[in-house]
Amino acid sequence: MKTAVVTGGASGIGQAIARRLAADGHHVAALDLSDTEGGETADVTDPAAVAAALAAIRTRLGPVTILVNAAGLDGFKRFARLDFATWQRVIDVNLNGVFHCVQAVLPDMTAAGWGRIVNISSSSAQSGQPFMSHYVAAKSAVNGLTKALALELGPAGITVNAVPPGFIDTPMLRRAEERDLLGGSVEYHVERTPVRRVGRPEDIAAACSFLVSEEAGYITGQILGVNGGRNT
Ligand code: NAP
């Protein structure tokens, strides 16, 4: 039994991951902007808030040796009209948030000689996505960071992998559908998805459950797409 922190654990994919890791027998704390039962409230872009949340979790549940970075913020804006503040906020949440959270848990993992980090990136980093240049840039950087950290932290017993989800039925996806930002309804895209269904948060949680397990110890620096075959 390990102690796991799941950022973005109050909603959608992060919530499913938190529930799955708890069902797997781990002590789990969500870290999110919103309050969750057994979790901590923090903005991942604020290093002091992240450090304070991690300290509270550590006191309650012990050293943190599993981190899943699922907090994320999407954005849809034609690049020519994208202002720098919006660009920066999306980079801040999706990329710098990962920086702050990994920095905060690294001492625990290093001391334990064991750690598992999973970064939830995005299939849009594989395929590109119009009007999401800031988001795609941030998520692509997360994939790169994953590979670099895997090489650097492997000798310390820490694996680092990324799961880029594609088309998962969460509040984020449905908000984008409501605003007609998906280039068609969810049902329209399902018809064009090889496995002919929308992804479920539990699909991502299952991949995370495996990647943080003991038996996944020889897997690091990998980008494991979970997207129903939309990106191969
Ligand atoms: P979601 O339902 O909107 O969940 C994201 C969670 O992250 C929310 O609880 C949100 O809080 C939280 N969050 C946002 N900014 C934060 C911050 N600065 N600090 C702490 N928490 C913050 O979205 P989701 O679809 O589950 O997405 C989870 C992850 O998967 C994200 O990284 C997303 O980019 C990625 N992803 C999703 C899909 C998909 O198809 N759904 C596809 C590709 C990638 P609030 O609700 O209070 O803002």
Can you put this structure into words, describing what you see?
The protein has one domain (3-166, 200-212): 3-Layer(aba) Sandwich (Rossmann fold), CATH 3.40.50. α1 packs across α8 and α2 packs parallel to α3. It has 232 residues and is α/β, with parallel strands linked by helices. The mean pLDDT is 97. The chain has eight helices and six strands, in the order βαββαβαβααβααα. The longest helix is centred in the middle third of the chain and has 29 residues, at 84-112. Strands 3-2-1-4-5-6 form a six-stranded parallel beta sheet, with helices on both faces. It binds NADP nicotinamide-adenine-dinucleotide phosphate (NAP). NADP nicotinamide-adenine-dinucleotide phosphate is lined by residues 7-8, 10-14, 32-34, 43-45, 70-74, 93, 97, 120, 122-123, 165, 167-168, 170-173. Belongs to the short-chain dehydrogenases/reductases (SDR) family. One of its GO terms (molecular function) is oxidoreductase activity. Pfam families: adh_short_C2 (PF13561). InterPro entries: KR_dom, NAD(P)-bd_dom_sf, Sc_DH/Rdtase_CS, SDR, SDR_fam.
